[in-house]
UniProtKB/TrEMBL annotation:
Its main location: cytoplasm. One of its GO terms (biological process) is cytoplasmic translational termination. Responsible for the release of ribosomes from messenger RNA at the termination of protein biosynthesis. May increase the efficiency of translation by recycling ribosomes from one round of translation to another. One of its GO terms (cellular component) is cytosol. NCBIfam families: frr (TIGR00496). This is Ribosome-recycling factor. Residues 20-183 form the Ribosome recycling factor domain. It comes from the Bacteria. The lineage of its organism: Bacteria, Pseudomonadati, Pseudomonadota, Alphaproteobacteria, Sphingomonadales. Gene3D superfamilies: 3.30.1360.40, Ribosome-recycling factor. InterPro entries: Ribosome_recyc_fac, Ribosome_recyc_fac_dom, RRF_sf. The keyword Magnesium does not apply. It comes from Alterirhizorhabdus solaris.
Length: 185
């Protein structure tokens, strides 16, 4: 049986692009969004949980995020998790509700966020290249086993490279769009 599976490679490369898009959604651009808190995990009950599993996150105003913690005992850990997430947000605690005012982005903060978007994009490019390497390795293994000929292997490697190039182009486009949004250009 052949180890090379083009559909699996396509799925994994698409996963790299989707992962990047999810990461980029978490970068704020001056507007409040519940997705800003997606990367925040809270340590409660002896486990790390997404913030959405211990509180209700809403956007009552364009520049304010409201976090309604369900259990009073979890207010402190949620506050700590948001502050330590590196999002530049400082919660205001009011009982079991945390209010997160979204400050205006300074030019310096915009540049930091654009740099972070570039780092996310580079991680996604590396993931796509790793998938390409895995595909090429499985093709070489198949050739050694006699499952595919050398010509077939080279043809498949060309397909894998085209898929990788297309995936990296998608990654670059998503990162460029987010950087443009962040920098306001």
């Amino acid at each position: 049986m052949a180890a090379y599976n083009k559909a699996d490679l396509e799925r994994r490369m698409a996963g790299a692009v989707e992962s990047l898009k999810n990461d980029l959604v978490g970068l704020r651009t001056g507007r409040a969004s519940t997705s800003l808190l997606d990367p925040v995990t809270v340590t409660v009950y002896g486990a790390n949980m997404p913030i959405t599993q211990v509180a209700t996150v809403s956007v009552p105003e364009p520049r304010l995020i409201s976090v309604q913690v369900w259990d009073k005992a979890n207010v402190g850990p949620v506050d700590k998790a948001i502050r330590s997430a590196g999002l530049g947000l400082n919660p205001i605690v009011d009982g079991t509700t945390l209010r997160l005012p979204i400050p205006d982005l300074t030019e310096e903060r915009r540049k930091e966020l654009a740099k972070l978007a570039s780092q996310y994009a580079e991680k996604a490019r590396i993931a796509a290249r790793n998938v390409r390497r895995d595909g090429n390795d499985s093709l070489k293994t198949d050739e050694k086993k006699g499952v595919v000929s050398e010509d077939e292997r080279k043809r498949h490697e060309t397909e894998v490279q085209k898929l990788t190039d297309a995936t990296i182009a998608d990654i670059d486009a998503a990162a460029a769009a987010k950087e443009k949004e962040i920098l306001g250009k």
